[in-house]
């Protein structure tokens, strides 16, 4: 049995036992939620559209005041099935109106589309048909959310603004049918999925906003404008380094209302309540790869949201550092994360692991001492000191060093003092095991070698230039976020000039040092 199945069954049971958050008095809410992984034959199948739809439907029934019997969830439907579902919901809306209730209709779609139609397998549902069916549902207020490529064509109506999140003001009230349209991208843009998040980027942030991340007022009620504003900012940030930046858009016609409360989070609905006291961008990663998927949220300080129960590793990103901590979230429980419960992660590790998407490299200074064999056999050990610079990238660490050292050797009637001054550049591949990093690398350089002799006879000073290349093994330990101790060992090969042509020799070495990173 899949390890995810018991958790899924638990979540389903909790959702069944926990009543949905009530809607406003005298208000009846309904929803049609559509997910379609498959588009037209020449379109790459999506991986997460149907998952996104299921997650949105779950939020509406738990916290959005939509009774399960008034929510229709369709996965991979054809256009006729969608139109029949809308017609049935319109009939229910007429019954509720006759009973004196105000009706609110939510329609959500995640899948392929273009500027004219939704792509449902081999068939198309024109956008004007969808809009017409929603408008003809007889609902007092309709909310249409579309997460699809080029869906911004829907918001090319009066009231559309494509580049900034909106805030509904009294002057924005229009004397017309109440409606709101939100799309994941502007006209001509692609909407993007994330394997790390396991969903569409916009849908992920929009749903997390509804679960509390967008609750700027802290009243445990998330309005439509709060959810859109949060999803807009986070989608823009998440796609800012992608080939195409994604700009969610909106259009609205609101009649006599400041805003629409979409979710009420006073009850946990079988989820766990997580309060993130420090500000920053957060990743919630299930430990051991079990439980719910990765969550990404932004906290302005004191943000409270509902998440699936489970054991999480929390990773907080600020402008200049990454912090990490642990949290165990229980169903119906409340967990608060403070700055004291987090540890700052080593600078090199955060770059090599790709944890900080805003930082591609980190620089530092290094110093170390080395002991190694001589370039000539029988002269004993040489000692060296080295200083240099270090740059860590995601795939490799690069070091540039200046090295000076030598040895002294005495024999009967002859004393030798050997001096070596050189420079080298090295590349390392490191594998991080927490604060311990193990790796291997190569380095190449050149060296000036001088030998001074003291003897009763005549022995002139000798100078030579030698090439040097070698392989090394490395162990590093992050003592502090900006300080790592390092132990190196390997074998250097030298190319020495000689009267009969270049000579090759090898010298083992071992080194101990530190790297100090500059934040």
Number of extended strands? 29
Residues in β-strands, percent: over 45%
The structural class is alpha+beta
**Largest sheet: number of strands, sense, barrel closure:** 8 strands, antiparallel, barrel
Quaternary state, please?
single chain
Low-confidence stretches: 1-19, 150-176
The N- to C-terminal Cα distance equals 46 Å
Percent helix among the residues? 10-25%
Radius of gyration over C-alpha positions, nearest whole angstrom: 32 Å
Do you know the CATH architecture of the largest domain?
Answer: 3-Layer(aba) Sandwich
Structure, explained:
- The chain is an alpha+beta fold and 519 residues long.
- It has 3 domains: 18-264, Rossmann fold, CATH 3.40.50; 272-344, Sandwich (Immunoglobulin-like), CATH 2.60.40.1120; 361-518, Porin (Beta Barrel).
- Helix content is 18%, strand content 45%.
- It has helices spanning 4-17, 49-63, 79-98, 127-135, 201-213, 224-238, 347-352, and strands spanning 27-35, 71-75, 102-110, 112-113, 117-120, 123-126, 141-147, 178-183, 193-194, 199-200, 221-223, 249-253, 261-264, 272-276, 280-286, 295-299, 303-307, 310-317, 322-329, 334-337, 343-344, 361-373, 381-393, 397-411, 414-433, 436-455, 462-480, 483-496, 503-518.
- The strands form 7 sheets. Strands 22-23-24-25-26-27-28-29 form an 8-stranded antiparallel barrel. Strands 2-1-3-7-8-12 form a 6-stranded mixed beta sheet, sandwiched between helices.
- α2 (49-63) runs parallel beside α5 (201-213) and α5 (201-213) packs across α6 (224-238).
- The radius of gyration is 32 Å and the shape is elongated.
- The relative contact order is 0.08.
């Amino acid at each position: 049995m899949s390890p995810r199945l018991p958790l899924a069954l638990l979540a389903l049971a909790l959702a069944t036992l926990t009543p949905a958050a009530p809607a406003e008095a005298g208000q009846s809410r309904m929803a049609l939620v559509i997910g379609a992984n498959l588009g037209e034959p020449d379109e790459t199948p999506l991986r997460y559209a149907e998952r996104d739809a299921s997650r949105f439907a779950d939020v509406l029934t738990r916290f959005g005041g939509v009774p399960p019997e008034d929510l229709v969830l369709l996965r991979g439907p054809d256009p006729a099935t969608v139109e029949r579902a809308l017609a049935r919901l319109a009939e229910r809306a007429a019954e509720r109106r006759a009973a004196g209730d105000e009706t609110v209709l939510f329609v959500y779609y995640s899948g392929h589309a273009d500027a004219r139609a939704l792509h449902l397998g081999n068939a198309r549902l024109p956008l004007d048909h969808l809009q017409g069916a929603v408008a003809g549902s007889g609902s007092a207020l309709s909310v249409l959310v579309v997460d699809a490529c080029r869906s911004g064509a829907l918001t090319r109506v009066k009231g559309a603004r494509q580049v900034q999140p909106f805030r509904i003001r009294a002057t924005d009230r229009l004397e017309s049918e109440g409606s709101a349209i939100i799309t994941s991208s502007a006209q001509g843009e692609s909407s993007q999925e994330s394997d790390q998040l396991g969903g569409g980027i916009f849908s992920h942030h929009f749903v997390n906003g509804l679960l509390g991340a967008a609750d700027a007022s802290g009243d445990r009620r998330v309005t439509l404008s709060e959810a859109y504003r949060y999803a807009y900012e986070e989608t823009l940030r998440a796609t800012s380094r992608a080939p195409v930046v994604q700009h969610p858009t909106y259009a609205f016609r609101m009649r006599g209302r400041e805003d629409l409360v979409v979710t009420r989070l006073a009850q946990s609905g079988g989820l766990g309540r997580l309060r993130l006291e420090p500000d920053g961008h957060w990743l919630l990663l299930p430990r051991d790869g079990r439980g719910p998927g990765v969550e990404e949220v932004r906290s302005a300080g004191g943000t409270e949201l509902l998440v699936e129960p489970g054991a999480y590793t929390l990773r907080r990103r600020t402008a200049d550092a990454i912090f990490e901590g642990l949290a165990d979230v229980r169903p119906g429980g409340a967990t608060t994360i403070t700055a004291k419960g987090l540890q700052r992660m080593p600078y090199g590790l955060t770059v090599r692991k790709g944890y900080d998407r805003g930082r591609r490299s980190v620089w530092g200074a290094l110093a170390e001492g080395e002991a190694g064999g001589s370039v000539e056999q029988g002269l004993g050990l040489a000692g060296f000191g080295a200083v240099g610079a270090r740059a860590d990238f995601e795939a490799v660490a690069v070091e540039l060093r200046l090295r000076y050292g030598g040895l002294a050797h005495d024999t009967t009637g002859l004393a030798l003092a050997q001096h070596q001054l050189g420079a080298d550049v090295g590349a390392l591949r490191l594998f991080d095991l927490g604060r311990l990093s193990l790796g291997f690398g190569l380095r190449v350089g050149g060296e000036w070698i001088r030998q001074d002799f003291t003897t009763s006879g005549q022995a002139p000073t000798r100078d030579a230039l030698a090439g040097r290349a070698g392989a090394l093994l490395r162990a590093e330990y992050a003592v502090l976020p900006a300080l790592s101790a390092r132990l190196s060992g390997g074998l250097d090969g030298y190319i020495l000039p000689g009267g009969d042509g270049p000579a090759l020799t090898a010298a083992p070495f071992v080194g101990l040092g530190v790297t100090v990173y500059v934040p």
